[in-house]
Amino acid sequence: MKVALITGVTGQDGSYLAEFLLKKGYEVHGIKRRASSFNTQRIDHIFRDLHENNVKFKLHYGDLTDSTNLIRIIQEIQPDEIYNLGAMSHVKVSFDSPEYVANTDGIGTLRLLEAIRILGLTQKTKIYQASTSELYGGLPQNKNAEGFYDETSPFYPRSPYGAAKIYAYWITVNYREAYGMYACNGILFNHESPRRGETFVTRKITMAAAKIALGLQDVLYLGNLDAKRDWGHAKDYIEAMWLMLQQEKPEDYVIATGKTTSIREFVIMAFAELGIELEFSGEAENEVGKVKHCSNSEYQLPIGKEIICIDPIYYRPTEVDLLIGDPKKANTQLGWIPRYDVKNLCKEMIESDVQLFKKDKEE
Ligand code: NDP
Ligand code: GDR
Known about the structure:
This protein is an alpha/beta fold. The chain is 36% helix and 18% strand. Strand 1, helix 1 (12-23) and strand 2 form a beta-alpha-beta unit.
């Protein structure tokens, strides 16, 4: 039986990956942080009491800022595969806590790689590093001839998060080259799901759309509506992580859908799923989105009601304007083909949030 260790197991991707590996027959270990309130909601459904027989999913307290604890856990479980998904992953928040992000997202990766080396596991333990499209920074001149970012495009990070992740990217490459480790970077473009953190823009939008339709919220305040992202589904993307560790040679791969959508278009798409048509007017900070038509009699929204407004508090000091990835290498070498596009991703998120808030309303 293969043994996997997941950092960030309580996060969006960690929870889907843990489910996926358990289904494949792995023994799965996860590192969770001690918190004053519960932070395991996304994995509670797969957790079983350690006193039961044959438990395949085990949690360990730990933190990427603590080498001693990482070394001890890795020594104890001798993993075949490590998935380093733990990170302070919010780009806007990284401007507020840049040193912490460097420590967790940057040096945290080094701590794991060093733990593998110190324990003499360089030929046994494979490692996946959660790299990101934020490395590219969205500079138009750095796209390839076909207009995409791919594995050869230059990096130019535009946030403390991106800068920390670029260190993690290169130190992973360096340990692969220096010590012959099986270490891979997945350069993943944005991926979302009903389990997406509530302050990332897609989830913020689908939650607000559901609440506004149900009369539980008045207005959704957003930042830059012109930014464009290449959005896929987390369930598809965690499979790519696993595939990267099953190859003959460790390599780095872009994982993306190859399509890009603006924040404004995503807002329109989300409300349209509920039968609510929006119309936008005004410029920059004065832009508003109003109800143009509502075809769903369940939702009582007056025509002309302003439900989308801009609050510059959500603008970033430096923005990544446009991301679009070329997944050709992953398609051909890994055989990875995503099942979701942005439309059915948005539909699934809306359906899940409507269900969630209908239940809240009834209680
Ligand atoms: P989430 O924010 O949902 O999850 C992050 C996880 O990291 C949580 O389990 C969190 O724990 C944990 N964590 C945070 N700080 C520490 C720390 N100091 N020590 C140990 N664990 C910590 O992120 P996602 O699941 O969306 O993303 C997974 C990884 O992929 C991240 O590294 C992210 O940067 C990267 N990525 C994500 C993309 C996306 O679009 N989702 C795209 C590209 C890369 P807790 O629950 O306690 O907060
Ligand atoms: P991103 O995701 O920064 O791409 O990082 P996020 O959803 O936070 O922002 C996407 C774009 O939406 C614009 N935006 C807003 N964003 C948020 N969060 N809240 C708002 O109100 C809002 N209004 C507009 C942003 O300016 C931005 O342009 C995600 C994270 O998962 C990273 O960890 C990961 O590495 C990258 O995706 C790929």
